[in-house]
Amino acid sequence: MTLQQGIDFDLYFRCYVVGQKKVHVMQYDPRSLTRIVTSGKPRHVAPVLHARVVRDAMTLCQPSATI
Q: Is the pLDDT of residue 37 over 70?
């Protein structure tokens, strides 16, 4: 058994990378039953943070990516 500490982040994202060319970024709520934020107005995300999420998703999907 492993004991892990829960970290309550402010924002969560789920990304789908299509054809290693396009990234679809969705806000995500792990505490919600539906998980994906579909109702209501999504929280504003700073353009710099959105660009970082897109860049990191593309990096992870490159064949030469190492984690």
A: no
- pTM of this prediction? 0.68
Residue 27 to residues 38, 52, 53, 67, Cα–Cα distance (Å): 8, 14, 11, 23
Residue with the larger pLDDT of the pair 4 and 43: 4
SS (H, E, C) 8-40: CCCCCEEEEEECCCEEEEEEECCCCCCCECCCC
In whole angstroms, give the CA distance from residue 7 to residue 28.
Answer: 15
Instruction: Using the predicted structure, report yes or no on whether residue 63 has a pLDDT greater than 60.
Output: yes
Residues in contact with 67: Cβ distance below 8 Å, sequence separation at least 6, in sequence order: 60
